[in-house]
Amino acid sequence: MKTSLSLISFIFLSRPLFTATLLLLSHCIIVRSDANDLISQTCKNTPYYNLCVTSLASVPTSSTADVQGLALIMVDIVRDKARTTLEFIDQELKRSPELGQPLRFCASSYDAILTADIPEAIEALQKGDPKVC
């Protein structure tokens, strides 16, 4: 039971980060001079303010980033979380084969994030055209 709860907690931790990234990409208008204020003001446009601020503040380069840079930092954070989640799911599949179907379903969602959503977000940001499809 403990394993299932930690899996669910971990998956939901990653999903809000992904949602925060999508919303961060759609609100790339804010301009502030103070880095902490920029992070704070940008994260206010997301549904998970505290998670957004904590995540961005954990990356040293966020203190000198503009909004586009913050979005790219968040994309990297989401990519790392998705990879870690896939590794966790793989371990759980080996440990609990009876959970194969739901775990494979979750894995396919995270695989889609890594193979489609992340590259699309990076490309859009690099082109200066951040859109949420």
TrEMBL record:
It comes from the Eukaryota. Transmembrane segments: none annotated. InterPro entries: Invertase/methylesterase_inhib, Pectinesterase_inhib_dom. It holds the Pfam family PMEI. The keyword Disulfide bond applies. Residues 37-129 form the Pectinesterase inhibitor domain. The keyword Phosphoprotein does not apply. GO terms for molecular function: enzyme inhibitor activity. Keywords: Disulfide bond, Signal. Belongs to the PMEI family. PANTHER family: OS01G0111000 PROTEIN (PTHR35357:SF8), OS02G0537100 PROTEIN (PTHR35357). This is Pectinesterase inhibitor domain-containing protein. It comes from Salix udensis.
